[in-house]
């Protein structure tokens, strides 16, 4: 059995993408929270001078990269539900006993989850444009795509790692919500980390989403806390770690 089976990876990726496209309720459900933040916060604080936000940057400009990052986190982390859904239907047992490496299975699920998360993030970005969001430098859009991909891989890997330790969707869903929102609020997505207590600032510095949001702001708005190269490097490391952890934990899942 080879370590990587491209056909198996492609089959799992295609299965996830088809299931996502064929369930409009899932698409709508994952966009509800981001749109609420965009509409209510983006318009409510449009003329406010909030502390810590760079001079000359409107709040909608500051907010959109954070909400796109949150969408990636929310959608990608819940990709772990695909594993539990496959377990309930018996599909997981079938692929675990098939002559396919666990690494190929994990990579297929990560590829599918990352693709669906990218679709959701792109939809939020497009919806934000009529609300007043403007891209400062369109030439940096390829960098934005790389950042979104690294964010998606990081949190899909996280979702797969976590889901591999659960046997029911309810417990997984509750725990994900307890984890996702602290990660979101400690990323600087809604307000600068510099305005938070020292402990919260420290937690923000070890949060992968912090670097994703900062990179998106740097590329889309031209206002970031860290150098863009540092943000991308931190995301690359977090993506590699999460994929490795997800593959290792999933490799311990029993086939019966």
From TrEMBL:
Residue ranges of the TM segments: 27-50, 62-84, 105-133, 139-162, 174-193, 228-250
GO molecular function: ABC-type transporter activity
Annotated compartments: Membrane
CC annotations in GO: ATP-binding cassette (ABC) transporter complex
Membrane topology, as annotated: Multi-pass membrane protein
Chief site of localization: membrane
Metal-binding as UniProt keyword: no
Occurrences of domain ABC transmembrane type-2 (ranges): 25-253
Keywords from the UniProt entry: Membrane, Transmembrane, Transmembrane helix
A Pfam family matched in the record: ABC2_membrane
PANTHER family reported for this sequence: NODULATION PROTEIN J (PTHR43229)
UniProt-recorded name of the protein: ABC transporter permease subunit
Organism per entry: Halosegnis rubeus
Origin organism lineage: Archaea, Methanobacteriati, Methanobacteriota, Stenosarchaea group, Halobacteria
